[in-house]
Write a structure and sequence with these properties.
This protein has 102 residues and is an all-alpha fold. The protein has helices at residues 4-21, 26-49, 53-75, 77-101.
Length: 102
């Protein structure tokens, strides 16, 4: 153990979890899930190569969870439309606020 796959998996997990916990926005969270997908693949391969089936099995499940996260945060057309509408509302609210202050 402790080969490049495991190190990538460990460091990638820390980085992705940190990005999600930082709440830096929907797009950053989506890209953190992309990183998690690659981390899961790394752990699956590492588990299979080192005869560690529990790690491999766990990360097969995590792969699907993380792929779902990528879809929800980056690819879902309904969510994208919701974000566009919310951003338009935010711009209008800022303009209205500036008009009342100035």
């Amino acid at each position: 153990m402790h080969g490049p796959l495991e190190w990538f998996g460990a460091i990638g997990t820390i980085v992705a979890a940190g990005l999600i916990a930082s709440n830096l926005g929907r797009q950053v969270t989506g890209w953190a899930f992309v990183l998690f997908v690659f981390v899961s693949l790394s752990w699956i391969l590492a588990g299979l190569l080192t005869d560690n089936q529990p790690i491999a099995l766990q990360n097969v499940a995590m792969f699907f969870v993380n792929a779902w996260g990528v879809y929800q945060y980056l690819l879902n057309p309904r969510k994208k439309k919701e974000i566009e509408i919310a951003e338009e509302c935010m711009v209008e609210a800022k303009e209205e606020l500036e008009a009342t202050e100035g």
